[in-house]
């Protein structure tokens, strides 16, 4: 087979990689679908740049991506590397051999300067994806508008500027790619869920901490 490919270890299926980007996940819309429940609906991407191939964990997966057993964010691949998406394993082949250090991860660019409103839009965009689900699609422009109490047209203008600032090319899954980059750069982080405190009903004793506080 000419060009890079992956071999799915569970099934032995050999899949050639697309010329630019190949998406991996459990969802129906990805290029390579893995049925393992530990795989997110949109889990990672293989990216080809000239003779080189690297894998990108999309940052919204609970189980992460590993290369030869090591967790990665981005990683240049060498022929024969084993890439794990959750518990699903694939072996990479068809990559030209070169004296190149595959252990080196590609450094992410520094975050662009953002306005306060752009930060609000990004936070709202990423909020669904930072839930407890393995992967949930980022918010739509309509959902962001409702969240921020602004017009959908205003949100779309902000998103267009953000695509430019983060250099997100046109194409499918553009909002998802923006959310991935924002989360990977640490600009938006999951907010710990604080369980609601239980209030005492009629005739019930208060929780121990409350009771101790009242007794002190």
UniProtKB/TrEMBL annotation:
The keyword Phosphoprotein applies. Keywords: Phosphoprotein. Residues 191-216 are annotated as: Disordered. Residues 22-72 form the FHA domain. Coiled coil: none annotated. InterPro entries: Cell_Proc_Reg/RNA_Proc (IPR050923), FHA_dom (IPR000253), Sig_transdc_resp-reg_C-effctor (IPR016032), SMAD_FHA_dom_sf (IPR008984), WH-like_DNA-bd_sf (IPR036388). It holds the Pfam family FHA. This is FHA domain-containing protein. It comes from Sphaerisporangium dianthi.
């Amino acid at each position: 087979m000419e060009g890079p490919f992956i071999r799915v270890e569970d099934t032995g299926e050999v899949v050639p990689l697309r010329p630019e980007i190949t998406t991996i996940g459990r969802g129906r819309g990805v290029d390579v679908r893995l049925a393992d429940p530990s795989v997110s609906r949109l889990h990672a991407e293989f990216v080809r740049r000239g003779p080189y191939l690297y894998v990108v964990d999309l940052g919204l997966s609970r189980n992460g991506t590993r290369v030869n057993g090591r967790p990665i964010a981005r990683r240049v691949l060498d022929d024969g590397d084993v890439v794990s998406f959750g518990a699903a394993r694939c072996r990479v082949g068809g990559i030209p051999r070169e004296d190149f250090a595959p252990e080196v991860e590609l450094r992410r660019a520094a975050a662009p300067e953002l306005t306060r409103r752009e930060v609000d839009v990004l936070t709202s965009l990423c909020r669904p994806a930072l839930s407890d689900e393995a992967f949930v699609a980022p918010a739509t422009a309509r959902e962001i508008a409702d969240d921020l109490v602004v017009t959908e047209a205003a949100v779309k203008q902000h998103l267009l500027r953000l695509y430019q600032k983060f250099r997100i090319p046109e194409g499918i899954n553009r909002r998802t790619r923006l959310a991935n980059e924002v989360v990977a750069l640490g600009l938006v982080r999951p907010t710990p869920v604080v369980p609601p405190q239980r209030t005492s009903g009629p005739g019930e004793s208060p929780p121990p901490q409350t009771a101790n506080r009242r007794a002190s």
